[in-house]
Write a sequence for this structure.
């Protein structure tokens, strides 16, 4: 095997140092594949094994990198102790040194746990046979440990390393599904049928992959020589619609008229148009992305790109090009100067079309000459008005540009000048006023500032007469799990955080009560965070921290296991929807808040009130059984320390014994029956748990004594409230106070400050406050 000259000296240095230090070394993965294919290789990864069986195998790669660094006076390697890897710059090239490893995956993560393994195990943990080859640097012979890699390269086939576990390989790391399509296009290989079927079965697991990682693979596919073939192949197994859910009409059977119309007014199939257009564009990210999204509703494109976390500037640029296409396509009659200026303003100066380039593309790559619909703009054929020639439009644009009358200045009169002139405070009205001024400039680019103020006067008058918005609500605390009902059971309690938001001239966040010196009063405030998300989702741009006063009166303890974060999320969603004039039900708020939190046990009762038992649907939403126990209260004892919910969850095991699962199923069933039927004497048995409380108890001192004290003083049953550290108990109202005090005495006797209280179940959930109580 011949090493390219670019890497020859690097490989010699590695091999020489490895021999001197008793290491076996191999070039691994795609680098070897590319050597065989005789294409320029990249990403030099070195697999390192110690020759001595007693040596430190896990740190072999790290130790070799250090030895090379010292021998050749290179910079220090970057060490990743957890993974046993190191990166080192050798002769200007980054080289990664790794140990052979085996991997273990958790059900809801594509990030594996790794451990030292044999070379054969390292080959099998890789994705495809062609990427599981090793080049032994002592002999320069290729090791094909799957037995199929070399043949698959010869036959141009892409298959998983272990055909018997194909679906598992993709379920463990579903990003491999997109990588398979990308490698297929990059290498010109066909995907093995068994591998393709496994990809189809596992593709919905892509939901666990971050949008950024999916976007990166899509971008790599877009930049391939023939991306249309890859997208068509993705469509054949249903993956295309899964990745681009907002573009629901992307099927090969659907006619897409916006690609190119022929004289008989018949469109062409989407993927045929994609091949004709996309594959002929230069491999530029903007051009390929714009070409891909041609012909779709602008809102769908914007949402799709945002969901895949494309950069905002690129998304905006694509949005503007789509707007230009539709504006020109729908324009009737001749183009006035004002029409052209309006189009230029909406597109933006960064997206100004190069008409000469577009005309050249039309003549060389698009529809047949003479077609009635063969004029392109921003990579797309669109029908032009019969009385308006494309070349004339281009000429008009250039004339206005040369005269300095193509683009208007949206800051012709700035916000400060508008506020001073009209005597108004900052607010959304400024944005509307500036747009009114822009509209006037489009008609008359030479207008005076006086005329600009006159154009904005109507908006200012509306602002002066507008009634300011004000919303006041309360949201209850909640206790969750109730013993065995982990992430399923929750109850709203009659302890409330109160929220008020109103429009003002100078925005501010005010915290009163618990946490007033700890909670943030800027964009990091959790209530404001979810208000902002609702504003964004609804396209409501007139509210910001500059023109809203948000007052939060906190009565729910922070970090105590009583749902303070759920109350904040629920409150933020409600407030923002109310400000935007949206009609949203409590159930919709509950569903949205539960998805944000990742579990419904606090969010649902905080929104709906009562005691709630939740079951997740296949679509991610929740069915809720809601009840209101009579003659029952909750006694709570809260110590003077907090526990992070995230930290508490990290203490939970990933797997459970079947006996523990069976135990909790029986207790959760008893719990439901006892609470609904009113047979509260069953709660002592029903409140027991083996799924979360034994693990969370490690962070809560003297918990067994707390449970014993509660039951001895008359509680039906005691449990950890949420993730703790509060201890809660089901109590008869007649015995409630004695139970709460008994629990408090346990901690006080151990020098742990604590306070106790008794709470009724809340019936209402979110509730508007008619009179000011903040």
């Amino acid at each position: 095997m011949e090493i390219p000259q670019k890497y020859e000296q690097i490989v010699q240095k590695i091999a020489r140092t490895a021999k001197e230090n008793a290491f076996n070394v191999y070039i691994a993965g795609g680098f070897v594949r590319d050597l065989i294919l005789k294409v320029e290789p990249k990403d030099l990864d070195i697999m390192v094994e110690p020759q001595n069986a007693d040596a430190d195998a896990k740190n072999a790669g790290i130790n070799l990198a250090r030895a090379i660094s010292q021998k050749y006076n290179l910079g220090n390697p970057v060490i990743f102790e957890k993974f046993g890897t190191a990166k080192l710059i050798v002769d200007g090239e980054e080289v990664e040194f790794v140990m052979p490893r085996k991997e273990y995956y958790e059900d809801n993560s594509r990030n594996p746990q790794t451990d030292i393994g044999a070379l054969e195990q390292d080959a099998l943990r890789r994705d495809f046979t062609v990427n599981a080859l090793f080049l032994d640097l002592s002999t320069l012979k290729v090791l094909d440990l799957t037995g199929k890699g070399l043949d698959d390269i010869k036959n141009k086939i892409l298959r998983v390393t272990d055909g018997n576990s194909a679906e598992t390989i993709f379920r463990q790391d579903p990003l491999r599904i997109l990588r398979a399509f990308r490698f297929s296009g990059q290498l010109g290989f066909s995907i093995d049928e068994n591998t393709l079927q496994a990809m189809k079965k596992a593709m919905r697991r892509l939901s666990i992959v971050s949008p950024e990682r999916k976007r990166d693979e899509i971008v790599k596919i877009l930049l391939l020589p023939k991306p249309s073939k890859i997208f068509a192949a993705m469509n054949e197994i249903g993956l295309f619609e899964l990745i681009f859910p907002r573009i629901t009409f992307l099927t090969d059977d659907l006619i897409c008229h916006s690609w190119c119309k022929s004289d008989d007014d018949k469109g062409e199939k989407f993927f045929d148009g994609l091949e004709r257009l996309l594959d002929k564009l230069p491999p530029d990210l903007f051009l390929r992305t714009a070409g891909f999204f041609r012909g779709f509703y602008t809102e769908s494109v914007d949402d799709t790109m945002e969901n895949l976390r494309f950069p905002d500037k690129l998304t905006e640029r694509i949005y503007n090009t789509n707007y230009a296409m539709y504006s020109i396509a729908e324009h009737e009659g001749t183009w006035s100067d004002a029409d052209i200026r309006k189009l230029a303003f909406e597109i933006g100066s960064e997206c100004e079309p190069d008409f000469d380039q577009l005309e050249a593309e039309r003549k060389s790559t698009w529809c047949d000459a003479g077609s009635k619909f063969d004029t392109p703009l921003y990579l797309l054929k669109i029908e032009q008005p019969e009385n308006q020639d494309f070349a004339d439009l281009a000429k008009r644009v250039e004339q206005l540009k040369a005269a300095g009358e193509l683009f208007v200045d949206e800051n012709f009169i700035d916000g400060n000048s508008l506020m001073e002139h009209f005597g108004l405070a900052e607010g959304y009205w400024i944005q509307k006023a500036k747009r009114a001024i822009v509209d006037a400039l489009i008609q008359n680019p030479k207008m005076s500032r006086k005329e600009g103020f006159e154009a904005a006067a109507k908006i200012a008058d509306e602002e002066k007469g507008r009634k300011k918005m004000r919303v006041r609500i309360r949201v209850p605390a909640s206790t969750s799990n109730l013993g065995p009902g982990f992430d399923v059971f929750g109850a709203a309690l009659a302890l409330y955080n109160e929220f008020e938001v109103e429009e003002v001239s100078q925005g501010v966040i005010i915290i009163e009560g618990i946490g007033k010196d700890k909670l943030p009063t800027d964009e990091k405030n959790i209530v404001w965070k979810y208000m902002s998300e609702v504003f964004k989702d609804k396209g409501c741009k007139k509210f910001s921290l500059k023109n809203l006063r948000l007052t939060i009166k906190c009565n729910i303890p922070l970090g105590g296991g009583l749902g303070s974060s759920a109350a904040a999320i629920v409150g933020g969603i409600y407030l923002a929807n109310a400000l935007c004039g949206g009609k949203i039900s409590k159930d919709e708020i509950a569903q949205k808040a539960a998805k944000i939190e990742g579990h419904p046990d606090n969010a649902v009762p905080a929104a709906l009130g009562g005691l709630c038992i939740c079951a997740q649907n296949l679509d991610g939403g929740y069915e809720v059984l809601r009840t209101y126990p009579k003659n029952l209260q909750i006694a709570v004892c809260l110590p003077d320390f907090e526990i992070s919910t995230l930290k508490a969850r990290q203490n939970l095991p990933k797997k459970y014994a079947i006996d523990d699962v069976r135990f909790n199923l029986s207790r959760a069933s008893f719990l439901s029956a006892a609470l609904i039927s009113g047979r509260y004497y069953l709660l002592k048995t029903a409140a027991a748990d083996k799924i979360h409380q034994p693990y969370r108890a490690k962070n809560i001192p003297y918990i067994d004594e707390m449970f014993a004290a509660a039951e001895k003083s008359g509680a039906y049953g005691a449990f950890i409230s949420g993730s703790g550290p509060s201890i809660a108990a089901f109590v008869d109202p007649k015995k409630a106070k004695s139970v709460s005090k008994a629990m408090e005495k346990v901690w006080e006797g151990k020098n742990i400050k604590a306070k106790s209280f008794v709470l009724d179940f809340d019936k209402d959930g979110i509730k508007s406050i008619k009179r000011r109580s903040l």
Notes: Residues 373 and 537 are 37 Å apart (CA to CA). The first helix runs from residue 5 to 20. The radius of gyration is 33 Å. Confidence is low (pLDDT under 50) at residues 249-267, 353-388.
